[in-house]
């Protein structure tokens, strides 16, 4: 079966870096998988996520994505096609940066649909449905700054899904949350994979990795293990090296 996302020889050398942040990474991710990316601080996790998502252009290697419009080479997309992918097929749940504090929860989600050309009324109706589905009914008109960290992450998850994204990238989605809220947020992300979406999550948290179907561990920019769950013990040992 053709993977949804496939990287070959993915290499990222930052200017001034002594060694590459990513060193010839090969990775295939199938539709519906939940993949945790683990590794010690500085091992290249975020760099890998950003290269896979087309946020960063790698210095070498390729990333293929099985878009609904046919295969695309993520590493060489032009800005227009990259924007289309981000609007329509990719979702992002990052700790910060994507949601706007001055907008309400509803507006933050609806704007993702409006960017795809959906009229405001319909976009807001869809956004309200997702917020309700994610347990935020009644908080639609709160500004982001008036929400807790866990509530804000739910808004991010709603935003990542309202577009119909097939592939969700999450970078430490539970990093700033207490353990009970982390479990709830991860439940919501994993529920998305039950509906056929694919989840790639960078995490330091062995509990998060344990609940993903697969764990990829990086060390010095290379994949040193790639195992189906349960892999938390091996991953935790690697991370604490
Ligand atoms: N913009 C940049 N310019 C130069 N070097 C960078 C840049 N971003 C990351 N690096 C370096 O690349 C390596 C990998 O960084 P990356 O952020 O991918 O690691 P990480 O595993 O996500 O780390 P952490 O767990 O601490 O977030 C590190 O050595 C880092 O210092």
TrEMBL record:
Domain ABC transporter, first and last residues per copy: 5-239
Cited Pfam families: ABC_tran
Domain of life: Bacteria
Molecular functions (GO terms): ATP binding; ATP hydrolysis activity; transmembrane transporter activity
Gene3D superfamilies in UniProt: P-loop containing nucleotide triphosphate hydrolases (3.40.50.300)
UniProt cross-references to InterPro entries, sorted A to Z: AAA+_ATPase, ABC_transporter-like_ATP-bd, ABC_transpr_LolD-like, MacB-like_ATP-bd, P-loop_NTPase
Record's keyword terms, sorted: ATP-binding, Nucleotide-binding, Transport
Coiled coil region boundaries: none
CC terms in the record's Gene Ontology section: plasma membrane
SMART domains: AAA
Listed name of the protein: Putative ABC transport system ATP-binding protein
